Amino acid sequence: MILDGCFMLEIIRLATVHSSLDHYAANDPVFSSHGRLYVAPYIRRDMLLLENQLPMLVLYKLASLEREPQGEEAVSMLVLNFCYPNKSVSKMDKCLHVLDLYRKSLLPEDPARKMRGPGVKSGLQNDENDIVRSATELNEAGIQFKKARTKSLRDISFRGGVLELPVIVVDDATEATFLNLIAFERLHVDSGKEVTSYVSFMQTLIANERDVALLHSRGIIQNAIGSDTAVCELFNSLPKDMAMEPNSSLEAVQMQVNAYSQKPWNEWRANLVHTYFRNAWAILALIAVLIFFALTCARTVYSIIPYYDPIQLTSLLPPMGSGARPPPRRPPTPTSNFPTN
Questions:
Q1: Tens digit of pLDDT for each residue in 49-65?
Q2: Is 308 helix (H, G, I), strand (E, B) or coil?
Q3: 323 half-sphere exposure, CB direction, 13 A CA radius
Q4: For a tag site, which of 41, 50, 66, 224 has the least CB within 10 Å?
């Protein structure tokens, strides 16, 4: 365990701090420029496997015995920068191991969101058989998708027909990472089920490649593995027997989405917008049709009025001058009932 801890600290420093490699051989398979480029990514992936976890306490003790001792927070940030590059995280609580540290970095709490709360409306009840529809179906029901302000998996909200989701980068390590995080939450009762609930929610949204394309167009999914079909297959390959955490903010979002999508008016309005307001040309065509219809109705009305009341037609004409009288009405011409030769 001590040897593994020393190796982890050394490879993390070489990959993140870019320490000098002078005291290593140029052809070293790990501690060299070649190792930084080709070996470090695989070590990073193995460090997130549940069976390879090393207690953070070991790393803290080893770092405190160095010539320049480092505190626990500095070691945690060093490990996190190796596992999650370019990730800015504030001060974190103590973690069990690297996987727990990585999991908590995915779930930072937004203070503004914590003050607002989940925003559950009274009167909404959760039905066990009520499942969120796919992204394309929700979009057809009038729900818009928007990327959240942060990348936290907690930052999922629904307000005014807009579902906000955090940005997720899908690459070749996403499946293994989610599987290990889900297994960790199942084995640790008091850890929470935020990642499991998030994966379960995304599985309901992604039913086919069209759902992936829709979320990708909104900037929510960043596809780094190729086609939209590959992303869909990735989420479908994850376990299906996952339940969302009860009484959570994500469950409240699911209830609001279901209540909104089940209103017929929202779906009718969405169909109207998708059919006639897709682009500027469709809007101009609709306006032209409405103007043409209005002119046709006006022409029809002006054609019918003289047939029923010719005097009323004269009242619609402009005045002919002071003292001018309208022309007298001619009596109808009598017709004979006898046949003519």
A1: 999 999 999 999 998 88
A2: helix
A3: 0
A4: 66
